[in-house]
Design brief:
By secondary structure, this protein is α+β, with helices and mostly antiparallel strands. The protein contains twelve helices and 15 strands. The protein folds into three domains: 105 residues, no CATH class; 108 residues, no CATH class; 175 residues, Phosphatidylinositol 3-kinase Catalytic Subunit, Chain A, Domain 5 (Orthogonal Bundle).
């Protein structure tokens, strides 16, 4: 008998994920869900249809809900399953994923709405112990009776948490989280301060980003409010559905970089054309691309940009920006960009012709590219210097701030030279 997982959207059962004979899996919507007048598609790549989706299409969406790298290996070892077994991992940790998706086996179906919202306040000592974990934050030390089913995609160590009455809490039994907690990274010094600074700088530059803070515990941790969660009038945490651009493009996570076959800017702007307000969202995406280039973020791949499905709308909106980091301050990080500009993957190779080609690829004119980019490049160093002072005033001195300022000065100067050359 094939094993199945029930797929929920905002805790409403919408379909099944079932194993196939060749150890793959397929997704199919419930016919009872499809006839509902309020039925919404799970993804732009998974339109409402009674037919099962192919294993490749199904895997592209659901595998993108899972962590990658050492996080994936850790959970595979913890639950004694293969790190290559998406289905088993989804069964083990798929209770609170990005967006409003959750997965449960038939015998683990979510309980009634009110009783499902269990949260475990974390004492100061438990918070410090959590952050002291060698590589991966794992709340198992709290005891086997505390059932966590938490999954966040990506390579970096992170943990979904909830802030309830100003207390840090661990969501239990698939209860929704409200924030994401990231510790310092032993491979990349001061990554907490780096991301907090870049996110604050993005906000000061006019980008839409969620609220962030640095938690003064242990070697410090970074906390970001989830944009895919809201509070109802009673203060309950409500999930909003979202999907990243790999999911929407039906691209598996191992192909998230354009050089590996992942989405490039042309594909991203094609997805934006399906948004509720495509013109406004095109401008938002453009500003994010410019910002990532100018701060030296080479890791702006398709999994780090998302679409948000607010309320009951059938059409998504461009989600707030997140995971903004100056990666070029770390020598061990690849300098080539996740998505090319024109024909150039490396920033040093970008010429005026590449911006002209970029404009053609996204269906725009050179003018709507050059002028906004020039304006941001001219203003960003001064805005960054002011923001760095604010970070020092709030969190104290840190070597990462002047290092980022130096990279921004170099990158903005190079960009302005490129735009003024023939």
């Amino acid at each position: 008998m094939r094993e199945t997982l029930r797929v929920y959207l905002e805790m409403l059962p919408i379909g099944e994920l079932y194993q196939t004979a060749d150890e793959g899996y397929q997704f199919c919507y419930d016919t009872s869900y499809l006839i509902e007048p309020t039925a919404r598609q799970l993804s732009l790549a998974l339109p409402l249809t009674p037919n099962p989706f192919s294993p490749s299409v199904s895997r592209a969406f659901f595998s993108n809900l899972l962590p990658e790298g050492q996080l994936r290996d850790h959970y595979a070892a913890k639950f004694r399953i293969s790190a290559e077994d998406d289905f088993a991992l989804l069964k083990a940790i798929g209770g609170d994923c990005a967006g409003a998706v959750s997965l449960y086996s038939a015998r683990m179906a979510p309980t009634a709405k009110d009783s499902a919202r269990r949260y475990r306040p974390l004492t100061r000592g438990e918070q410090e112990q959590l952050l002291d974990e060698a590589y991966v934050m794992d709340p198992s030390f709290l005891g086997k009776e505390e059932h966590t089913r938490l999954s966040l995609a990506g390579m970096q160590d992170k943990l979904p948490i909830a802030i309830i009455n100003e207390e840090l809490c661990l969501p239990l039994d698939g209860a929704p989280s409200s924030h994401i907690l990231k510790p310092q990274n032993h491979r990349f010094p001061n990554l907490v301060e780096n991301e907090a600074f870049c996110m604050a700088l993005a906000r000061a530059t006019g980008l839409d980003v969620p609220a962030t803070t640095i938690l003064p515990i242990g070697d410090r941790a970074y906390i970001v409010e989830r944009y895919d969660r809201v509070r109802d009038p009673q203060g309950q945490i409500i999930r909003l559905h979202q999907e990243d651009f790999c999911q929407a493009s039906s691209v598996p996570p191992r192909q998230k970089y354009e050089i590996n076959g992942g989405p490039g800017h042309a594909e991203c702007f094609s997805l934006i054309s399906r948004c509720k307000n495509p013109l406004a969202d095109r401008i938002k995406l453009l500003k994010l691309i410019f910002f990532n280039l100018l701060i030296g973020n080479a890791d702006a791949h398709a999994k780090n940009i998302s679409l948000l499905y607010e309320s009951k709308s059938m059409h998504p909106s461009f989600a707030p920006a997140y995971d903004l980091v100056c990666t070029t301050v770390y020598d061990r990080v690849e300098s080539e960009m996740a998505m090319k500009i024109g024909a150039a993957f490396h920033p040093r190779d970008i010429g005026r012709k590449d911006w002209q080609e970029f404009a053609k690829q996204i269906g725009g004119s050179e003018k709507i590219i050059v002028e906004p980019l020039k304006q941001m490049a001219e203003k960003l160093p001064e805005i960054a210097a002011v923001q760095a002072k604010r970070m020092v005033d709030q969190y104290g001195q840190n070597d990462i701030y002047p290092s980022i300022l130096e990279k921004i000065t170099q990158r903005t100067s190079a960009t302005l030279r490129c735009l003024t050359s023939n």
